Amino acid sequence: MFAAYAARIDRDQPLNGLELGERPAPVARPGWTTVNVKAASLNHHDLWSLRGVGLGEEALPMILGCDAAGIDQDGNEVVLHSVIGQSGHGVGPDEPRSILTERYQGTFAEQVTVPAWNLLPKPKELSFAEAACLPTAWLTAYRMLFTNAGVRPGDSVLVQGAGGGVATAAIVLGAAAGLRVFATSRSEDKRKRAVELGAEAALPTGGRLPQRVDAVIETVGAATWSHSVKSLKPGGTLVISGATSGFNPERTELNRIFFLELKVVGSTMGSKDELASLLNFCAAKGVRPVIDTTLPLDRAREGFAKLAEGEMFGKVVLTV
């Protein structure tokens, strides 16, 4: 079957390790099922995999891709929950949880095999491309907002780095849930898009907000960390799920964190139940993932290049 896969690890030039071509079809195993992939979306996790983060040389070649929607062996339209081993289903109780492609072949292929437990029904209101955007970036944003930040309608939220997959999802989901959403971006065009998607205001990176906020959704890391901490109300919550600009901020702002009794919460992915709630929310409220580009699988390299350049607004989707 045709697939996009990591053939080599290159920490400096990750796309050098990306290959497109034929790979063996999935092999059946007890408790697992095979899905015919209709659409799959890219995440920064795929670029990190090509750099060798979470993926060792011994696991190569590895088909990339965590997110997908498709048709299962019984003809049902399904969405994949991409955290493997969360429940023990299909892997046994002793295997630690992992994201698909850290241990098992991924979704950038004509077929993918996952534990049957990891499948959820695709709502009829969502296209395959839209549904394929949800299991990583949108699920991460959903958990950050509603589980870890614990915000409620009327609360205020700052989303750093408008344009990225998680940040875009947080703006759309927050606005749909009745939050006052503020966003930042270096790009004037992305700031305009953020307002169109429901942000009350969008400012240049590091810009002064009209008010301090109840929570900050942080995926940028070092470049925005100090601004995130300074933007919080006393007792506010900073939720972080990534650090695309680096892991070591110049200023940690520890004095503000303890003096204002701020909370810093790490967040990774989400549960199957949270994904089910996200799917229902999108279907019921007409919320749709923002898709920047849709490409056929054989043009996956273009999608990876777009992701690496950081010039997209929303998700890059590959169709099969």
Overview of this protein structure:
With 320 residues, the chain is α/β, with parallel strands linked by helices. The protein has helices at residues 44-50, 128-132, 134-148, 165-176, 188-196, 225-230, 254-259, 272-285, 300-309, and strands at residues 2-6, 18-22, 32-41, 62-63, 69-71, 77-80, 83-84, 98-99, 111-115, 119-121, 156-159, 180-184, 201-203, 213-218, 232-240, 263-266, 291-296, 315-319. The strands form 4 sheets. Strands 3, 5, 6, 9, 10, 17 and 18 form a 7-stranded mixed β-sheet that branches. β11 (156-159), α4 and β12 (180-184) form a beta-alpha-beta unit. α3 crosses α4 and α3 (134-148) packs across α8. The longest helix is centred in the middle third of the chain and has 15 residues, at 134-148.
